[in-house]
Amino acid sequence: MNPTVIGPRTLEEALRALQDVTPDSRLLAGGTDLMVEIESGRTRPDAVIDLWRVKELRYLRDEQGGLRIGALSTCRDLLDSALARERADLLVLAADQVGAEQIKNRATLGGNLGTASPASDLGPVLFALDARVRLVSLRGARELSIDEFWTGYRATARASDELIESVFVPARTPGERRGFRKVGTRAAQSISKLVVAIVLRIDHGTLRGVRAGAGSIADKSLRLATLERELEGQRPDAATVERATRASALADARAIDDVRSSAAYRRRTLQRVMHTLIHELIEGAR
Questions:
Q1: I need a surface site. Which of 140, 214, 219, 246 has the fewest CB within 10 A?
Q2: In what order do the strands lie in the sheet with 192-203?
């Protein structure tokens, strides 16, 4: 049985449509994940709310204190935006590795958030950029940190009557260095085995403002809290980096064995990628 398809054209229409959803109803943004789920039979929704024509959700704009990105902004929108390259360069780098051109043209930031895949390419970047998610409903709006928004495997804090309206990326701190790495089976168009994003700066010979995220090392994209703690306030030397990356690989990674990689491989690779990326950022800051 085919699902009922609802096609709102305004944000208000979309929010009103959410008043009648059931646990089996689904939101459709770009469709790069949901259409695969439906075609394979893993998901059988009774209704689909197609948000593609809600233009109010597709924008990038300068906002006091940072950059606001509408939930329906695609990877292509990010790649084509000078504002995104200036304010959210890591997000642009990640968007460029999401998949083929057809995928980039359809895959949306909000869809990536809502799907909450642990192998998300964009998720770790949002942790490193300290981004926040704005949710809206007929009841009003609220804004959550990425830590608060993702609650588990393909699970979020979004209520059934809420939509992801936008993501806010705070302004870049002077002197901040940013790095991103994706490890996959091949150079392009592959599901990630590991994704790491790190932000830091060196202030008077000390590491400051360390923020980091990783994907494909747990049941969700997550903040590398141990790495941040071990590096913050320390000298940027080889011993510090070695100690911090070892501790993070043990404490932050909740790695599992699956069809793409073993837990042991993920832990070893996570440490190597963090180690290399941090050294590159430290050298670049000198």
A1: 140
A2: 177-184, 192-203, 206-215, 222-223
- Residue bearing tokens 């990356």: 245
Query: Which residues are bridge partners to 145 per DSSP?
Result: 132
- Report pTM: 0.93
User: What pairing do the DSSP bridges indicate for beta strands 192-203 and 177-184?
Assistant: antiparallel
For the chain, give the mean pLDDT. Answer: 92
What is the C-alpha to C-alpha distance for residues 36 and 221, in angstroms, rounded to an integer?
21
Q: How would you label 137-157 residue by residue, b for 16+ Cβ within 10 Å and e otherwise?
A: beeeeeeeebeebbeeeeebe
Which domains, ranges and CATH numbers included, belong to the chain? 4-50 (3.30.43.10), 57-170 (3.30.465.10), 178-284 (3.30.390.50)
Give the whole-angstrom CA distance, residue 131 versus residue 90: 12
C-alpha span between 164 and 156 (Å, rounded): 11
Query: Is the confidence at residue 189, as pLDDT, over 70?
Result: no
